[in-house]
Specification:
single chain; mainly alpha; Vanadium-containing Chloroperoxidase, domain 1; 9 helices; globular; Phosphatase PAP2 family protein; membrane
Length: 244
Amino acid sequence: MTKSLIQRLHRFAAARFSPQEEFGLHLTLGVLAMLLAMAGFARIAGAVVDGAPITAVDLRLANWLHAHAHHSPLLRNFLLGVTHLHSTPGMLALTALAGWWLVRRDARHWMLTLVAAVPGGMLLNVAMKHTFERARPHFGEPILTLTTYSFPSGHTVAATLLYGVLACYLSRQARGWQARATIVAAACIMVLLVAGSRLYLGAHYLSDVLAAMAEGCAWLAICVTGVSTLRRRQAARASGNRSY
């Protein structure tokens, strides 16, 4: 009995790390990434709710950036362009454009991943904002005046998801680790640029954008892993039908 149980556990563990299995390595890595990102989000959210030292850092950084933003009109206008491009209408337009490009490349499962990730993640973030109800930074002469809640940053979540999906797809098409590293680095730079624009313009605190990145990574792991599993199951069934 014990030997049989050990054998079953060994087969189960081997399947979880097999690149060919329907519920193999991709699912194991996806679940691990999701859990790590969720743990990061929970830690930041808990710190914000409890008024931990990071909230003092939030205030100091927000005040420092706001003071400098009024002295750098060129940088301010550039970051205003970045933030407007990644607003809700802009992100939906970019997502539609990316989806059309993926369909043209016959990457329909990746298009499904994109649709589930970006609009779905944006809706999830709205629910998070209304859960925490954190007020935005307040200044005497604000650059942006917003009435919605601050935590987590919606722009940063959407950017993490859009550029995350594109980076995952392009990385699978690339040859060599240098090309993959360049793709991932470019996606990270775009996310950081969007997050930085929200901080510089006084729309968010540092913890808002950090939590948004963690939230986006968790939802990205769910969407990429879920659609990948669906594709593998469909391929396995099609292969099984052909064998008959």
